[in-house]
Specification:
By secondary structure, the protein is α/β, with parallel strands linked by helices. It is built from twelve helices and ten strands. The two termini are 22 Å apart. Bound molecules: zinc ion (ZN) (2 copies).
Length: 389
């Protein structure tokens, strides 16, 4: 064993101990956030709890970052100039009607736990440590906003783990745009003078048909899914205002923007022409980018996950896990989003996954995740060849 390997093995053991020492603190926090779900950009309580804990543990915490009240950035110890900065990313938003069915309470406490475990070791490690609270992942694009506000300017690697139904060292993401498509027509009495109305709901209905026809003519990675946002008010008035909300996704931003988006626009514009309505497109969230997988970070994740006894999925990764604003981060900073199993079957955005996020397996993922993230960061700090690659 080389001297570096001996030193690192010792550091990994210390990290494990530091995480175990904080077991009840981390699990209590995970359960509290789980029991108090807050939607995108309203995560005041979760941000408060996370910031409070970081402050108590000696971090310098900036609560609220740029334009986002529920974001935060916490750093530990004096800044070492010329040394790499590793950021642990915490998500903590929940889903409409489903609580923490994406397990972001687990993400938050893994990131926080990694920060807390590394802090006492920073005097031995050659770098800088920050924990960034990134709100509004579910449709809000919090990280895209944080990028614009400069939160990642001084960051050399961004690390996070998402709970899942399997263990994986990386996860591809789809590029995504999110629109509200609004149709405007002319109201009229639906029985007495329907011939004088221009029906915006018809435009919405026809656009769903258009989407279904287009579905066959795109590559299999493409996802398009919409809900009717407003379908009119009462049955006896021809609906003069109607709208839908749609997400459009593809494996690469090139195919998304050059092929899919223009045809989707044509579908909506076509529905407007057919009905005589006018159509307006409103971007309802920042576009999400596809994920650039950083292989050295993924390999480090795999090494540590296996060390903790986790078996990694070795089949080819399924395309179409979804989209996330960590994709945007990966386009400016080497990034990791590993996956840790919290249930063998359940997938995110289901009642079963919500239950798994506070189960014994969910708790184990919190502790394993904190250990893995901190160990990957230690590799970045003290292994110059990893940092270089
Ligand atoms: Zn989700
Ligand atoms: Zn999620």
């Amino acid at each position: 064993m080389s001297i570096l390997a001996v030193i690192m093995t010792n550091i990994y053991q210390q990290i494990e101990q530091e995480v175990q020492t904080r077991k009840s603190l981390l699990l209590d926090l995970s359960h509290r956030i789980h029991a108090h779900p807050e939607l995108r950009f309203e995560e005041h309580q979760a941000a408060e709890w996370l910031c409070e804990t970081l402050t108590e543990q000696g971090f310098e915490v900036q609560k609220g970052f740029g334009t986002l009240e529920t974001a935060f950035k916490a750093s530990y110890g004096p800044y070492k100039a010329g040394k790499p900065t590793v950021a642990m990313l915490c998500e903590y938003d929940a889903l409409e009607g489903l609580g923490h069915a994406c397990g972001h309470n687990v993400i938050a406490t893994m990131g926080l736990g990694a920060g807390l475990a590394l802090a006492p070791l920073m005097s031995e490690l050659d770098g800088n440590l920050v924990v960034i609270g990134t709100p509004g992942e579910e449709g809000g694009g919090g990280k895209a906003i944080l990028i614009e506000d400069g939160a990642f300017k001084d960051v050399d690697a961004a690390l996070m783990i998402h709970p899942m139904n399997e263990n994986r060292s990386s996860c591809s993401l789809l590029a995504r745009v999110a629109w509200e498509v609004k149709y405007s027509g002319v109201p009229a009495h639906a029985a007495a003078s329907p011939h004088l109305g221009v029906n915006a709901l018809d435009a919405v209905r026809l656009s769903f048909n258009g989407m279904d026809a287009l579905r066959q003519q795109v590559t299999s990675d493409v996802r398009m899914h919409a809900v009717i946002n407003h379908g009119g008010d009462v049955a006896n008035i021809i609906p003069h205002e109607a709208s839908l909300k749609v997400y459009i996704r593809a494996a690469t931003r090139e195919y998304l923007y050059e092929s899919v988006v223009p045809r989707m626009r044509a579908v909506y514009e076509g529905a407007a022409i057919m009905t005589g309505t006018t159509v307006e497109f409103v971007e309802i969230a920042k576009p999400y980018e596809d994920m650039i997988i950083n292989q050295p970070l993924a390999s480090s994740f795999a090494k540590h996950a296996e060390r903790l006894g986790r078996k990694l999925a070795d089949d080819e990764e399924p395309v179409g896990f979804g989209s996330s604003d960590i994709g945007n981060v990966s386009h400016i900073v080497p990034s990791l989003q590993g996956l840790l199993q919290i249930d063998a079957v359940a997938l995110p955005h289901t009642h079963e996954f919500e239950a798994a996020a506070k189960s014994p397996q969910g708790d184990k993922a919190v502790l394993d995740g904190a250990t893995i993230l901190a160990s990957v960061a230690a590799d970045v700090f003290n292994n110059p060849s990893l940092l270089k690659s």
